[in-house]
Amino acid sequence: MKFKFASIQSETGQRLLNSKGINNKNPETVIYFKGNQHFLKSSAVLEILYDIGGVWKIFVILKIIPKPILDGVYQFTAKKRYKYFGKRVSCYLPGAENKKRFLT
Question: Which structural domain, as residue segments, surrounds residue 27?
């Protein structure tokens, strides 16, 4: 199991952020913990894609773009995500096979 998930708004998410000294309460921000490091926004997405492996590693080339520009694209996409990817009526609830991937 390569990745585990926690909502930023959950008690678990808040405990994790507080333990790492991260003050980010924005639920639209992806935060990725890797070893003793953490990555936010576009840096988190690029690290995740790299760690997924395979063809996704190619996106690491985007790190040559200045972080403020990448984070701007990230913020734009976060604001327009429902338009691009659709919106669900209810939150995703993991099935038994995926429940172990969510931190509680």
Answer: 11-99
Asked whether the whole model's pTM tops 0.85, one would answer no
Beta 37-40 vs 31-34: how paired, if at all? antiparallel
> Which residues lie below 8 Å from residue 101, measured CB to CB, with a gap of 6+?
1, 3, 4, 5, 94
Six token digits for residue 102: 């969510």
Residue 5 lies in a domain: no
Nearest alpha carbon to residue 80 among 68, 72, 91, 69: 72
Contact criterion met (CB below 8 Å) for 103 and 4: yes
**H/E stretch holding 42:** helix 41-52
Domain count, the chain: 1
Question: Residue 67's pLDDT is what?
Answer: 95
- The answer to whether residue 4 is domain-embedded is no
Query: What's at 19, amino acid-wise?
Result: S
Q: pLDDT by residue (tens digit) across 50-98?
A: 999 999 999 999 999 999 999 999 989 888 877 777 777 666 667 777 7
